[in-house]
Amino acid sequence: MMRLSASITLVTLIASAQSPPNPEPQFELVQPDLFAAPGGQPNCWADFDNDGDLDLFVGFNQGKPNRLYRSDRGTFTDVASQVGIADLPDTRAAAWGDFDGDGDVDLYVGFTRRSEMHNKLYRNDGSGKHFTDVGAAMGVDAVGETRQVSWIDFDNDGDLDLFVAMRDAPNLLFRNDGGRFSSVGKELGLDDPRRTVGAVWFDYDQDGDLDVFVANQNGDSNGFFRNDGTRFVDVARELGMDAAGRPETEGSNGPSVADFDLDGDLDLFVASYGRNFLYRSDGHGKFTDVAKEMGVAGGDKATPSRWGDYDNDGRPDVYVSSYIDRPLDEHDFVYHNEGSRFADIRPAALGLVRGATHGVQWVDFDGDGDLDLALTNNNPEGAHPLYRNTLAGDRARRSIEITVLDARGRATRAGSEVRAYAAGTRTLIGAAIVDTGSGYCSQNVMPVHIGLGSAARVDVEVTSLTKRGRIVTHARGVPPGIRQVRVSN
Q1: Dihedral sign, CA of 241, 247, 252, 258?
Q2: Are strands 161-166 and 131-133 parallel, antiparallel or unpaired?
Q3: What does the alpha-carbon distance between residue 267 and residue 144 come to, in Å, rounded to a whole number?
Q4: Mind listing the pLDDT tens digit for each residue in 393-445?
Q5: Could you say which residues of the chain have pLDDT below 50?
Q6: CA–CA dist 76, 63 (Å, integer)
Q7: What are the residues whose beta carbons fall under 8 Å from the beta carbon of 190, sequence distance 6 or more?
């Protein structure tokens, strides 16, 4: 493991109105008329126009135009038609990533096979004023029942490669070769033919490259592909993580990564039809399923999952949405991390009156220090609500947010690990990764949020994966209320 001096920039707290005190976090709807349309599926956040605040893309089912909500200091306007990305076909996947390394984020959009639409790669033409579809020219205009899409640097060469999961065909991996992408999934052993819905990339064995967990549906066993440099090897069965033997009516959907027990290792939650899995990392690349004992195994048809410390107590919580055909029967889960166990909190108790069937994203869109929540629901009576967290101002500021960039200031470090320790100690306060796939078939480009609990100051440690191995950079003595710790390596 290499340790280099960090390039660090601290940005002070964005000014915002203080919320009234609340004994527990409560959420309130933001611009409910704007976010009222049903049919939302993937949703993901990024600052596409580089104006300093996060914007939201939402993909819709058949016949409804996709939307891009530009944020102007927390007020949203749909500009999808204006910038050229208001597609009508059934949209199942969306991922932000700077594939061409020009400093602004681009967008990959995946459709269903029945739409007969090739997937699109929208290149951001600068300043967020227009996007151009270059999918065919770049060799990534796949056709199929597209699910999780992820921009990741699997070969550590400094540019973003593209993973595209398919529910009806072998999964795809496109290597970024500069002017064009090459399809290398088959030769590298990642062309999994099982019915994939979700996937998440992280360095589970800490050998310096990204591995990928693949969540499969319709009774198919799950996969966990270890990156051995020249090939990917499925070790899910060896690790006891394949969930083999399920009936056709069961399967997995939305995996997500966090260090829920604050021991320094990355754990994995897998939302599933049948029951969920919580794989606790025991170190050295070994995992134990503790979902039942931790109280998170429930849910008949869990779709995506998303970790987020919504009360800034230092322990990551997880929101799990449920796909139920009849909206009145929907029951999402907010599992609050109590330390020794998770408490099942009914969303309505937090003011979350409209639930999700698909997209779930925790995001601090208003920059006040606490995590807000964006959901999508594709039922006829659903919506795609955005909720503001009204956590009291002093508690909201008990957090920091970390943006991880490469040495040229570009967002190409998906999968980097972020840890915060009590200043001057090795007492872990919180840990997370730069997003590699989350919510529902989505990927964000946004800061990593870590709640600090009662910590006065923290030392931030960022581990990035490069040709030189796992490079660790540091920012020491960071106080709560810092909205951005920008780390470049």
Answers
A1: negative
A2: unpaired
A3: 31
A4: 899 999 999 999 999 999 999 999 999 999 999 999 999 999 999 999 999 99
A5: 1-6, 12-22, 328
A6: 23
A7: 163, 171, 173, 212, 225, 232
In 347-478, where does DSSP find H-type helix?
393-396
Give the separation between CA 117 and CA 149, rounded to whole angstroms. Answer: 16
What's the start-to-end Cα distance of the chain, in Å? Answer: 14
- Can you read off the two tokens belonging to residue 388? 């503001």
Distance CA 119, CA 111 (A): 6
Residue identified by tokens 């780390």 is 487
Please give the structure tokens belonging to residue 313. Answer: 């107590």
Q: Count how many Cα atoms sit within 13 Å of the Cα of residue 169 in the half-sphere of its side chain.
A: 14
Q: Which residues pair with 106 in a beta bridge?
A: 97
CA 426 to chain CA mean position, Å: 27
- Closest C-alpha to 304, from 417, 94, 447, 148: 148
Sequence-distant (≥ 6) Cβ neighbours of residue 321 within 8 angstroms: 271, 302, 303, 304, 305, 332, 355, 356, 357, 358, 359, 360, 375, 440
Question: Residue 196 CB: number of other CB atoms within 10 A?
Answer: 29
